[in-house]
Amino acid sequence: MQLIYEKSVSGRRGVMLPVSDVPAATDLPQNLLRSETAGLPEMSELDMVRHFTNLSRRNFSVDTNFYPLGSCTMKYNAKVLENASNLFAPLHPLTAFLPGGAELCQGALGMLYDLGQMLADITGMDEVTTQPLAGAHGEMTGMLLVAAYHKAKGNKKKYVVVPDSSHGTNPASAAMVGYEIITIPTAPYGDMDLELFKQAMSGEVAAVMMTCPNTLGLFNPHIKEIADIAHSHDALMYYDGANLNAIMGKVRPGDVGFDVVHVNLHKTFGTPHGGGGPGSGPVGVKKSLIPFLPMPRIIHDEVSGKLQIQTDNPLSIGRTANFFGNFGVMVKAYTYMIMLGREGLIQVSEQAVLNANYMKEKLKDWFDLPYTQTCMHEVVFSASKQLAQGVHAIDIAKFLIDKGYHPPTVYFPLIVKEAIMIEPTETESKATMDAFIEVMIEAAKQAEADPDSFAAMPVTMPVTRLDETRAARSQTVCCLG
Amino acid sequence: MQLIYEKSVSGRRGVMLPVSDVPAATDLPQNLLRSETAGLPEMSELDMVRHFTNLSRRNFSVDTNFYPLGSCTMKYNAKVLENASNLFAPLHPLTAFLPGGAELCQGALGMLYDLGQMLADITGMDEVTTQPLAGAHGEMTGMLLVAAYHKAKGNKKKYVVVPDSSHGTNPASAAMVGYEIITIPTAPYGDMDLELFKQAMSGEVAAVMMTCPNTLGLFNPHIKEIADIAHSHDALMYYDGANLNAIMGKVRPGDVGFDVVHVNLHKTFGTPHGGGGPGSGPVGVKKSLIPFLPMPRIIHDEVSGKLQIQTDNPLSIGRTANFFGNFGVMVKAYTYMIMLGREGLIQVSEQAVLNANYMKEKLKDWFDLPYTQTCMHEVVFSASKQLAQGVHAIDIAKFLIDKGYHPPTVYFPLIVKEAIMIEPTETESKATMDAFIEVMIEAAKQAEADPDSFAAMPVTMPVTRLDETRAARSQTVCCLG
Amino acid sequence: MNTSHYCPHTPEEIQEMLAAIGVSSVEELFAPIPAALRCSTFNLPVGMSEFETYAKLQAVAADNSQNLSLFIGGGFYDHIIPAAVDHLSGRAEFYTAYTPYQPECSQGTLQALFEYQTAICRLTGLDVSNASLYDGATGLAEAALMAMRATNRTKVVVDGCVSPIARKVLATYLSNQDAELVELPPLDGLLNREELAKQLDANTAAVLVQYPNVFGAVEDFSGLADQAHAAGALLVTAVYPVALGILKSPGDLGADIAVGDGQSLGNPLSFGGPSFGFIAAKKSHIRNMPGRIVGETVDKNGKRGFVLTLQAREQHIKRHKATSNICSNQSLCALRGLIFLAAIGKQGLADLARLNRDKAEYAKARLAELPGVAVLQTAPTFNEFTISLPKPAEAVVAALLDKGIAAGMPLGQFYVGSENMLVVTVTEKRSKKEIDQLVKALEVALCN
Amino acid sequence: MNTSHYCPHTPEEIQEMLAAIGVSSVEELFAPIPAALRCSTFNLPVGMSEFETYAKLQAVAADNSQNLSLFIGGGFYDHIIPAAVDHLSGRAEFYTAYTPYQPECSQGTLQALFEYQTAICRLTGLDVSNASLYDGATGLAEAALMAMRATNRTKVVVDGCVSPIARKVLATYLSNQDAELVELPPLDGLLNREELAKQLDANTAAVLVQYPNVFGAVEDFSGLADQAHAAGALLVTAVYPVALGILKSPGDLGADIAVGDGQSLGNPLSFGGPSFGFIAAKKSHIRNMPGRIVGETVDKNGKRGFVLTLQAREQHIKRHKATSNICSNQSLCALRGLIFLAAIGKQGLADLARLNRDKAEYAKARLAELPGVAVLQTAPTFNEFTISLPKPAEAVVAALLDKGIAAGMPLGQFYVGSENMLVVTVTEKRSKKEIDQLVKALEVALCN
């Protein structure tokens, strides 16, 4: 498909603007004006609409394809969430900061407050900030809170401990807060190696960042012991909420020793992933960390029953973003949560785990399963059997594309060779999973029978396999005018 | 793709209903209850959404493909029209008929009244009813008005005259009002044969139904003379507004002798075609026909400045549908009209005609052009040259599908052998037309070089050419449970 | 030239195109229109930007009472519409396509309409359905014409308990046909079977009844089909599709043709339209059906596909001998109906129907407790019922409108002597609280 | 089990699946969680139907003042959003997909992001852009970190005329880094160049400025890039993208990095989010860029296609050595930005910018006529300007809020001694009538 710039025609106009009802201002001085009009598209509205409609048709998506992308929780995005979020489109965020402004946005503030309360309840935390704009942003916010906590206590801390199965964002977020990383290998049974962990712990460790269940889909049974050890060094326990979809109503991070937790609303709480975002990564903390929460903070005034806004607090880490975070995303998550309610969310986790274990059971004879125990919401296979025939995980992925399935996550977690990480989510029906299982088995058979056939895949898409090296070398990241 | 019924799973539930907040009623008597629950789909919401999203992707449409379907005016459907129409979703039509109800819907009534006034102005009529639900429904309404007029005058009328180039709806609508049809052949120059018309006219003719420009895209220069002849027999002139997109601001049906006109809002006024509807077919009339208009009628009270509703009138033809017609469609048309305004609508017609003539000029060397004069908004070619090689108009159509174009209308008008009727509309850019022209020329060349290749087309769609005879024979019009 | 929305050409492009055509101005292209006939144009106002236009429409919308507590129905019902209905029918590939004349590139619309036809057949218990008509009222008229064609008779007998608006449309449709229309006056809000028996003769094409009827009654129509068939007439039933979640289907009743309005299936009230009409019939009548019909077939490779079928019935082929003049129908509204039914599901529609009845029965019982208020029907009702008031219904309704409640439809405008009668509708969207407010407000109004 | 929304299995299916797994209950699957750790669950309320839920959200939305006449900005602007933006970004294939890790089945997102990057490059006059950051404020912080990496220096100098909120975010981001942050106090609402010269030293990584600045001034930054570069520092400019329709681009100014908030490009106010941050830079800095970048390449047949590129910078490869921790960005908001720019078009953005300035200049002139009101800036302004009032701005704003007018942002909360200062924003959406009402209401408030 042509680029929109290649379809542009010089002088063509798109959407008309209102005609001015005020006098034209005198021109700005020449030295402030741009040398030439920016080379934006010049399209008719129809051509523009057709361009983007047809571009959209070149995507796989949850609404068109099964999308078992492990660690991303690609569940159904209920349509009512979109409608709900649109209700707040005209609300200007500064409204809340005008004199008496809180009074003008009690609905929005109340929604945020209630959302925080519900998230605190689900995770076992005492208070939640909704400011972080995505999971990684929540991690950074959380680590800033950890740093502020230690600073206030006069602790000298230098390290953050992460297992080698962790998401890359964990060490990256800790690094943005100035910490050095200690990585703990995964033991053969799939959990962080407990002995090596114990050896690594010291008074210089600021925090331990865990995903639980981890990226292998396994719940660490020693989590409480780990937390106790960490706390004995006055290290805080950080919970990466990426996999919260597995455990709602079963276990609460706060109850097993975690002090800080971020939640990915776009995973567990059904808000759409938007082709890469926006997400939302609220952070919950235990009481000891509340003084450090970022500003603004919403406070429920018991006397008036109204919501108020705290904008300053000497111990606060400051601000990690504008205002209250990705509000529109939170409206969607809130809508999802009150719609499903307590029983609904518990059922979500139960059926997410059921689906993953079903997938595991049905495919384990065909693909190598490095960790065989009961998994939680996702299961990690390896294409090592197929690799013996020269077929890589990425080849299986391209096979699946040709069959109309978005591939699972491949090559993550890094600790599993040729990893294939499948997360069906609870919203997929048995029929969909059975059809996918059949295609996966077909891939395994074809890897045996005709391994060379994979190199040409995919063949059903607008493009065949793309040359990533060339992209990195040429660094063509925009189209010159 | 599987049918939705084939994807259903017994016992599966879709969207949840509210839990009742009132006591359960006692059961209805058994003899009133259905014997078994109707076999509707049983789908999860995700599976249902995926089903229809993927079904939608099996359509060509204006937003995805150039769609030069002659006589249908497949112009761009502005997105703001959808938003505007949604604003009125909760308004119950009976509101207007409650005591004092008109007062409760002044906005809606005012919109309808203004729309009628604007349509009257554009067509040169004196009043418009918005009740008819589509073009053909407008025709029937118009013919009922004609019949009522003659009845009131004591005229004995039996026939309606139509040219053979007319839309099938014209004779069909006249027949529904009890008239017999006299069909006038088209003369070699493309207009209704004037001499034969004169011979056909008599005191028994109730009306002459004309499309002008006609379905060949030609404006009849004798239209005023035809009207005068009709009127001399006290026959009324009916204007089929299907092709109004060609003439806005250039000529008004009312000014050249037409007494009744219907307008297709879904053609000229940019409302979407919906895969076959809903349309909207308001009917405008000259003063002499106002007493016969269907009820309810909206009246502007000069004294109060308010809109009122007339529900009864002894001469009225009655009701041709519920309430005020396809209101939501009219909101869209109204939005379109006030947005474009006078100059905008004139430009619409000018560029629609420009585009059609450009298409005509560029293709006339490749396809037989039975009528060579300047066309209006559409141009009719014939595949007779290609037929000599055994390639039919339908084959050209399938060739175009494989190239990503919705085919023009084929085999209509019936009077042109192997007709290919192209209506680009004003919203298509030159680049789109040039690309289409190139592909049409390619088709012409391929018809010469390799006529046998067409039989296999299309090959790029989910199905190849379909067996229509088998469908008519098997009469499988629903899926048995 | 480029002064307007949606007309893409630049002045340079226009010049190129004019040169290719061989004329010097766009105006020249209008030369075929004789100068004497040219208009001095029309008087529409100057156009506006999209932003200003939408703001204007918002103002128009605000100038209506759109937030009434609705206890009115009369053929248009305030039902829930799952969000997915808007999102899916809002797919551009659905709403910006047209009639699927070219089946290979229209399988989306065609399969959806085939699935719609199936839903209608299953809901009505009949064999064949078309792909939609305009609305329920014109559907009733089309059914009468269809019965006339099928029986080659000209007399149509309609129960006076059928919606008065639909009967008006029916009368208008038949007014210039070779047809005799007989209306049977209601007997205590029900079909007058004795009068019906008198009207059944050798020229009777059809008997038209409705359930629930305009008063809300769900009548026991057992034996009615036999009675009609014995006289060689067809039975046509107009039905409320949500009620069919629990009510005996037209097929169960032995009806030959069923029609109804599909608004209640996923289409907004929208001041009365667009909605859609459905029509279903016994298989033997398929060639007399009006409108588009989608049929299943196979492609060259034997793969299943869908096409418009039996087009020889239609106007674009048969012209004045067609079964109807209908061309554009209400396809997108029918699609919404299908999506609604698929979203709610098999058991869901039954539950929805029960929920409607539960709400209405609660309201009926509470209203019946008010002094001077009596329930008309002895027959069971669904989500609509008629009460008689101790004073004119119009005045009472007007009083409640001032409190934001549309209490019901006064019957006096439709039936002489019914000035104190009110039809009250209660859908699943009315909460107990709203019903209690209605009862309270009515009590106050009746005391004043 | 099937008690909830969006969980599809029937009880029979659950039994089948459990049997396949070889357990007898779903609960058994949670055995890996030690019993002692299990929670007694949480206390969320009982769920609701979609209809009830949406009604609740409507009530929440209604409990806000969403219809104020907005003369506030401060980084979030009330601009028109063409209807097509919602419709196109509402395509399910866009919004229900995720990061395009598998390029062949994600060419829609990838090409759109490539086109977005191009739009940002052209708007900013710079060479490379990423595929979006969270927002403008975090974008400024990322730009500072990027400059530190590029220069291997640790001192960041920020103009005090940069948005106070963005400066707070910047400070928070740098708070635990090996970094020194210096804020230059504004000089008459402009950059204090003398102070800047003092702060430029061998450890200065970047100078951060904003235009229009927080007071609304469009400052002449000629020579600033040379000044920074002479000290070996980079120039980072935070920009308001709508203003770039007419204002000199960062590239024109010689800036090395440009950042900004994309809300004004087709994203609703939505109480502050989601929006998106853009970042663009000279080509030499591409390997120091944070976040996703889409690059052009070819497939096996030489056909053009797009992929995520230079991923070696990113956290999922580089972990703690990544250029940033960002993973999910604001892709859909960036897409909206692109669609907005494509809808408005090249000349349209310039016209839009002029329209904003015309409205603001009109308002400025009218307000300046009021007794006691003075315009702060001597520098030109775009669509925002600062006025001083004869009394505290907070009180005046409060008085106008009562009349439905959000008259501006009082500066006192951000700058000591600015209690009488008010920043007034006027976008193209404010009609002359609204501006006149603001002036009138302010006049009244000042008299009281």
Report on the architecture of this protein.
Chain A has two domains: 81-338, Aspartate Aminotransferase, domain 2; 347-458, Aspartate Aminotransferase, domain 1 (Alpha-Beta Complex). Chain A has 14 helices and twelve strands. The mean pLDDT of chain A is 97. By secondary structure, chain A is an alpha/beta fold. Chain A has helices at 45-56, 79-86, 101-104, 106-123, 135-153, 169-176, 194-200, 223-232, 265-268, 327-363, 384-387, 393-402, 430-449, 468-474; strands at 127-129, 159-163, 180-184, 205-211, 236-241, 260-263, 283-285, 297-300, 307-310, 379-382, 409-410, 419-422. Chain C has 448 residues and is of the alpha/beta class. Chain C has 15 helices and 15 strands. Chain C has helices at 11-21, 50-62, 83-89, 92-95, 107-124, 136-151, 164-174, 193-199, 224-230, 250-253, 315-318, 331-344, 346-368, 393-401, 432-447, and strands at residues 69-70, 128-129, 155-159, 180-184, 204-211, 234-239, 257-261, 277-281, 294-298, 304-308, 374-375, 384-388, 405-406, 409-410, 421-425. Chain C has a seven-stranded mixed sheet with strand order 2-8-7-6-5-3-4, with helices on both faces. A four-stranded antiparallel sheet of chain C has the order 11-12-15-14, covered by helices on one side. In chain C, β9 and β10 (304-308) form a beta hairpin. Classes of the chains: A alpha/beta (481), C alpha/beta (448). The A-B interface holds A 7, 9, 12, 44-47, 49-50, 53-54, 57, 62-65, 76, 78-79, 427-432 and B 7, 9, 12, 44-47, 49-50, 53-54, 57, 62-65, 76, 78-79, 427-432.
